[in-house]
TrEMBL record:
Residues 57-234 form the Electron transfer flavoprotein alpha/beta-subunit N-terminal domain. It holds the Pfam family ETF. This is Electron transfer flavoprotein subunit alpha. The lineage of its organism: Eukaryota, Viridiplantae, Streptophyta, Embryophyta, Tracheophyta. Its cofactor is FAD. FAD binds at residues 264, 289-290, 303-307, 320-327, 341. Keywords: Electron transport, FAD, Flavoprotein, Mitochondrion, Transport.
Length: 375
């Protein structure tokens, strides 16, 4: 199956202009070593994404700390300082960290401009477009997070190529596997378009290698992109109004080792606090079904599923979740799934490793009582 370019344009016009997270796309030049290896053996692209050197997503907190700690390490170009007031560690620090965090990074491109102070998808897509015009990269890859999914189709439309989204396996330099029908079928896609081949990668499908395992002693060169050569209005088409984000001490839902999810059965935002308490005790992230989000129990950035976040933690605990396919699409790759539901026929039990038929209003208080306090 190959995407028709029209699909790109369609997607482009439908993308919402919503910023859920400050992120940076990083684009880089495959090193000489990798180029040689790939020309000897195209199968080398089967290596996990964290060894697949095309791009990566830089997350807010990591950038704010002046260092890069993303699961997918391969990169690139730290194109933007993400802090609201620019008082945090500098873009230069982030670029320096990118330059030394992985042996496959052969170049870091840094875009420093007040036009890029805020993570506007339009500006970023334009930047990717402009960088590609100068660099002629064969592949541009980003993690399948909200921001990557916001930018990549836009950049692809500007470059007149069709992006391939949610890749879970790389079978060749132009052959990829991606889920369809809410994860119920896998589709092998061959990209036959012109360069660049643009991908969003489902990072839960690739192992995370700690940055320290990849650290290098000789940093890759950092080049500053001369944005003035791109023209006055090249990246000036949208306006930043405000950013709303949740400050939480809990682990990020997308990367958490343990996720505790509540469904519609919780009945109210007040009752949902039981899920939050349990998550606190277990050092877990909180997730929710769409029904729980739609009912207003929790904000929609906690939604797990086809139209929410894709998670694959070590442990996923679902309380009062029926297990609709749209929900399973977001969590079925979890290592161990525990489900508590009072209906023994609930579909969630078909994917659960451990199931308890019971009333969550009895089970959760008992768990809270028996679990030790978090130190
Ligand atoms: C296009 C589309 C996209 C969607 N995307 C998503 C998505 O991303 N994520 C998502 O989650 N959904 C998504 N949905 C919605 C999905 O189809 C389901 O409606 C939703 O997941 C149901 O949520 P739920 O399990 O909380 O609620 P319900 O289906 O109502 O299930 C509640 C469950 O709780 C159990 N229960 C009730 N009381 C108790 C109790 N006291 N103790 C224990 N168990 C109890 C019931 O037996 C039942 O199984 C999408 C739907 C569509 C059409």
């Amino acid at each position: 199956m190959v995407y028709h370019p029209l699909a790109t344009r369609h997607r482009y016009t439908k993308v919402n202009n919503v910023f859920t997270k400050l992120s940076s796309i990083i684009i880089f030049n495959p090193s000489e070593e990798l180029r040689n290896r790939n020309s000897r053996n195209a199968q080398s692209f089967q290596r996990p994404f964290n060894h697949f050197p095309c791009s990566f997503k830089l997350q807010t907190s990591e950038h704010e700390g002046g260092s890069i700690n993303a699961p997918s390490v391969s990169a690139v170009e730290a194109a933007k300082s993400l802090s609201d007031d620019n008082s945090g560690p500098s873009l230069r620090e982030a670029a320096e960290h990118a330059a030394s965090c992985h042996p496959y990074i052969s170049q870091v491109l840094m875009a420093d401009s007040d036009k890029l102070t805020y993570p506007l998808a339009e500006s970023w897509a334009r930047l990717v477009h402009l960088v590609q015009q100068k660099g002629s990269y064969s592949h541009i890859v980003t993690a399948s997070g909200s921001f990557g999914k916001n930018i990549l189709p836009r950049a692809a439309a500007l470059l007149d190529v069709s992006p391939i989204t949610d890749v879970i396996e790389i079978s060749g330099s132009h052959k990829f596997v991606r889920p369809i029908y809410a994860g119920n079928a896998l589709c092998t896609v061959r990209y036959t378009g012109s360069d660049p081949c643009m991908l969003t990668i489902r990072s839960t499908s690739f192992p995370v290698v700690p940055i320290s395992d990849n650290a290098r002693s000789d940093a890759a060169p950092i080049s500053q992109i001369d944005l003035s050569t791109f023209g006055e209005d090249a990246i000036d088409k949208s306006r930043y109004i405000k950013l709303s984000s949740q400050n939480s001490e809990r682990p990020d839902l997308g990367n958490a080792r343990v996720v505790i999810t509540g469904g519609r059965a919780l009945k109210s935002a007040e009752n949902f606090k039981m899920i939050e308490k349990l998550a606190e005790k277990l050092g877990a992230a909180v997730g929710a079904t769409r029904a729980a989000v739609d009912a207003g129990f929790v904000p929609n950035d906690l939604q797990v599923g086809q139209t929410g976040k894709i998670v694959a933690p070590e442990l996923y605990m679902a309380f009062g979740v029926s297990g609709a396919i749209q929900h399973l699409a977001g969590m079925r790759d979890s290592k161990v799934i525990v489900a508590v539901n009072k209906d023994a026929d609930a579909p969630i039990f078909q994917v659960a490793d451990y199931g308890l038929v019971g009333d969550l209003f009895e089970v959760i208080p008992e768990l809270l009582e028996k679990l030790p306090e978090k130190k």
